[in-house]
Write a structure and sequence with these properties.
- By secondary structure, the chain is α/β, with parallel strands linked by helices.
- It has a single domain, classed as Rossmann fold.
- The chain has a seven-stranded parallel sheet with strand order 3-2-1-4-5-6-7, sandwiched between helices.
- Helix 1 runs parallel beside helix 2, helix 3 packs parallel to helix 4 and helix 4 runs parallel beside helix 5.
- InterPro entries: NAD(P)-bd_dom_sf (IPR036291), SDR_fam (IPR002347).
Length: about 250
C-alpha cells in the first residue's frame, strides 16, 4: 500500500515528546522525511531514533524556541537535511499558566512567536501545495482562572492561523490548526496531575463525555489529515480534538 506522505519533507517544531512526537512518528510512518526540534536533547534523540527506525530520513536539533536566532538557524539546516520542505507543524508550548510576567512571557515567546518566527523562516522554502499546521488548545475557547496567559495566547494562535491562511493563499500554501483538549501521555501534564492535583484530574476527566483523556495519536491523525491532499480545499480552520470536552458530559 502506498504511503500517503512518501517523498514529503516535514518539520515538527516541538517534536520530541507527547503530541509532537506522535505527529512526527505519524508522518514518518506514512513515508515522510522528518526533522524535529526541541530543547531537551534526551527525548529529542530518542524520538529521532524512532523516526529513523521507520526507514525514513530523520533529523533532529536541540533548539531553544524562545530564541529567534536559534529558530532562524534551525529551519534552513532542517530543510537542507530533508532536501526541501512540504509541511511545517508548529507544536511548541511554554505552558505559561500564572498571570504574571513570567507566565505571559513564556506563552507569548514560545506559543506565539515561535510560530511566527518558524513560519517566516520556513515559507521561503515552501512551494504551492505545501501546508502549515499550528497547534492551539481548547483553552483558547473558554475563560480560565488557572491559565489566563496560556488560553489568551492560544486564542491568538487561532486568529493568526486564519490570518496566515489568508496571507499565504496566493502562494498556494494552506494553513490550519488543531485545538486539542486534555491529552494524557507518559511524563505529560495530566499524568503528573494524577498525583500532584488529583482533584483537578478527576474534575477534568468528569468533564469529558467519553470518560477518558485523549491520546497524542488522536491529535496526530487530525494533523496528518490537514496536511494531506485529502484536505486540499481546507484552509484557515482550527479543528477541535477534545472528545466533546468543550460541551461537557
Amino acid at each position: 500500500m502506498a504511503k500517503e506522505f512518501a517523498g514529503k519533507r516535514v518539520i515538527v517544531m516541538g517534536g520530541s515528546r507527547g503530541i509532537g512526537r506522535s505527529i512526527a512518528l505519524g508522518f514518518a510512518a506514512q513515508g515522510a522525511a522528518v526533522s524535529i526540534c526541541a530543547r531537551n536533547p534526551g527525548p529529542l534523540d530518542a524520538t529521532r531514533r524512532e523516526i529513523e527506525a521507520l526507514g525514513v530520513t530523520a533529523h533532529a536539533a536541540s533548539v531553544d524556541l524562545a530564541d529567534a536566532k536559534a529558530i532562524e538557524a534551525y529551519v534552513p539546516q532542517a530543510v537542507a537535511a530533508l532536501g526541501g520542505l512540504d509541511v511545517l507543524v508548529n507544536n511548541a508550548s511554554g505552558f505559561g499558566h500564572a498571570d504574571d510576567e513570567e507566565g505571559w512571557a513564556a506563552s507569548l515567546t514560545i506559543d506565539m512567536m515561535a510560530i511566527v518566527r518558524g513560519s517566516h523562516a520556513a515559507v521561503p522554502h515552501m512551494k504551492p501545495g505545501s501546508s502549515i499546521v499550528n497547534i492551539s488548545s481548547i483553552s483558547a475557547l473558554r475563560a480560565s482562572s488557572r491559565s489566563a496567559p496560556y488560553g489568551a495566547i492560544k486564542a491568538a494562535v487561532m486568529h493568526y492561523t486564519a490570518s496566515q491562511a489568508k496571507m499565504l493563499a496566493k502562494q498556494g500554501i494552506r494553513v490550519n490548526g488543531v485545538a486539542p483538549g486534555s491529552i494524557e501521555f507518559p511524563g505529560g501534564t495530566w499524568e503528573d496531575r494524577k498525583t500532584s492535583n488529583p482533584e483537578l484530574y478527576r474534575a477534568t476527566l468528569a468533564s469529558i463525555p467519553f470518560g477518558r483523556m485523549g491520546r497524542p495519536e488522536e491529535v496526530a491523525e487530525v494533523v496528518l489529515f490537514l496536511a494531506s491532499d485529502k484536505a486540499s480545499w481546507v484552509t484557515a480552520q482550527t479543528i477541535v480534538v477534545d472528545g466533546g470536552q468543550l460541551v461537557g458530559p
